[in-house]
């Protein structure tokens, strides 16, 4: 019991079947948290290797995480969890100080590093790829400094982008605190900038136009009707639909003047995102990050939720895992093949292809729920 090092972690993974990573079977494949929890109840559920705390975008503090795990471990003593906050190891540092109080907890210390892929054959736009690192040393200064530098650079870029937005659209008084309502990590320098600012600027501009005296924040329609934002329609048009559903009222068409403001904002926040052939310093390229982790004394790697990095061609996952092994060498061992942070036909369609590509490179399957809520057996993105 206690903190599981990378060597023992590898042995755990070798002995797990797919069921070990699943709390149960979904009643509806299109609904994330619709499990029947049969494997939790039978103790066949053995591991959640993808958990976030308040140090990134989760709801649990570290004591809560350890207490919940301790209680579950009384019934299921072989349960293994991993703390994998985005771009920070601060939660892992706290775990290392508190773990002695929890005699029944098995935990692997990890991190989920945000990377951008721009070096794959024939791709047309950047790809967000998340890298899970397991078995890290919480006192690893090399890794800690790397993550801190990236967070600081991204936070400064986010602040500069907000300033540019206010210069171009001064009546909206954009600010980082409001932006974080739909994506809390933007004010922590974790993850990306353009995507949360797309949500924020589209939502605020449209809400200000349609309901200038609204008694609710722009983010609530996004959270309540998250499933709407899955298609290829421009984000702001989908937001209008979500807003109509939220207020239960049809709204007039978006006028050209408002659409122009949305496009002005887009041109600004897209400058804060890498493009093909142009990697911005605050961001981490996939290959460079994998290569960096391969130089650490502690830590082995897994590709997080690969189906969420949507393939642009049938060969994409072969390209992805090929680069992973090439740059990660003997530390590139896993891929997250069992995970519950997805819904819909796309993910069901591509998972067999992902498994097939991973097998070519002898990658072992890991799994996690990508938990953000107050437990470790669901995803719970929002309270």
Fold and architecture overview:
By secondary structure, the protein is of the alpha/beta class. The chain folds into two domains: about 1-140 and about 285-370, Metal-dependent hydrolases (TIM Barrel, Alpha-Beta Barrel), CATH 3.20.20; about 150-270, no CATH class. About 40% of the residues lie in helices and about 15% in strands. It contains 13 helices and eight strands. The protein has helices at about 5-15, 40, 60-75, 90-100, 140-170, 175-180, 195-210, 220-225, 235-245, 255-270, 285-295, 315-330, 345-360, and strands spanning about 1-5, 45-50, 80-85, 105-115, 125-135, 300-305, 330-340, 365-370. Strands 1, 2, 3, 4, 5, 6, 7 and 8 form an eight-stranded mixed sheet that branches. Strand 3, helix 4 and strand 4 (about 105-115) form a beta-alpha-beta unit. Helix 7 (about 195-210) crosses helix 9 (about 235-245), helix 7 (about 195-210) runs antiparallel to helix 10 (about 255-270) and helix 11 runs parallel beside helix 12. The longest helix is centred in the middle third of the chain and has 28 residues, at about 140-170. The chain is globular, with a radius of gyration of 21 Å.
């Amino acid at each position: 019991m206690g903190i599981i090092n990378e060597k023992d972690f590898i042995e755990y993974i070798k002995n797990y079947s797919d069921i070990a990573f699943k709390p149960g079977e979904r009643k509806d494949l299109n609904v994330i948290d619709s499990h029947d929890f049969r494997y939790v109840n039978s103790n066949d559920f053995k591991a959640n290797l993808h958990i976030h705390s308040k140090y990134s975008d989760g709801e649990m503090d570290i004591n809560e995480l350890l207490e919940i795990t301790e209680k579950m471990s009384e019934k299921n003593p072989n349960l293994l969890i991993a703390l994998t906050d985005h771009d920070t190891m601060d939660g892992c540092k706290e775990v290392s100080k508190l773990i002695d109080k929890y005699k029944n907890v098995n935990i692997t210390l990890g991190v989920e590093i945000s990377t951008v892929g721009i070096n794959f054959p024939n791709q047309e736009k950047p790809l967000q790829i998340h890298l899970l690192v397991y078995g890290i040393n919480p006192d690893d200064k090399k890794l800690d400094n790397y993550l801190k530098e990236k967070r600081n650079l991204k936070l400064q870029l986010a602040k500069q982008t907000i300033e540019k937005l206010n210069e171009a659209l001064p009546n909206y008084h954009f600010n980082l605190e409001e932006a974080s309502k739909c994506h809390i990590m933007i004010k922590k320098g974790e993850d990306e900038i353009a995507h949360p600012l797309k949500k924020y600027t589209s939502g605020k501009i449209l809400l200000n136009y349609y309901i200038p005296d609204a008694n609710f924040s722009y983010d609530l329609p996004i959270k309540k009707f998250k499933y709407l934002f899955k298609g290829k329609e421009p984000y702001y048009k989908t937001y209008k639909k979500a807003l109509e559903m939220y207020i239960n009222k049809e709204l007039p068409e978006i006028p050209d003047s408002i659409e122009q403001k949305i496009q002005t904002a887009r041109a600004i926040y897209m400058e804060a995102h890498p493009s093909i052939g142009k990697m911005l310093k605050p961001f981490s390229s996939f290959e460079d990050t994998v290569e960096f982790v391969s130089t650490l004394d502690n830590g082995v790697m897994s590709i997080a939720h690969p189906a969420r990095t949507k393939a642009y061609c049938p060969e994409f996952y072969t390209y992805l895992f090929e680069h992973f092994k090439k740059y990660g060498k003997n530390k590139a061992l896993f891929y997250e093949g069992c995970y519950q942070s997805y819904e819909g036909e796309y993910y069901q369609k591509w998972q067999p292809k992902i498994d097939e590509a991973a097998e070519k490179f002898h990658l072992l399957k890991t799994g996690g729920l990508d938990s953000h809520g107050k437990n470790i057996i669901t995803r719970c993105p929002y309270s």
